[in-house]
Amino acid sequence: MTIPKSVQEKVYFLPSNGEDERQRLEIQHDLILNSQGRKHIHAPINLETVSSVLETATGSGIWLKEVYQLVPDTAELIGVDISPNLFPPSPPPNVKYLQQSVLDLPKEWSNKFDLVHQRLLVLALRNDEWRTAINEMFRVLRPGGWLQLYEYDDWEKCGPVQQKMKDMVRLLMEAKGAHGIWPHGTTQWKEYMEETGFKDIRVTWHFWPTGRSAGEEGLRGKVNHLDFLKVSKKPIVGAGGFGIVSGEEEFDEWVEEVGRELDTRDGTRMRCVMICAQKPL
Question: Which ranges form a coiled coil (predicted)?
Answer without folding.
Answer: none
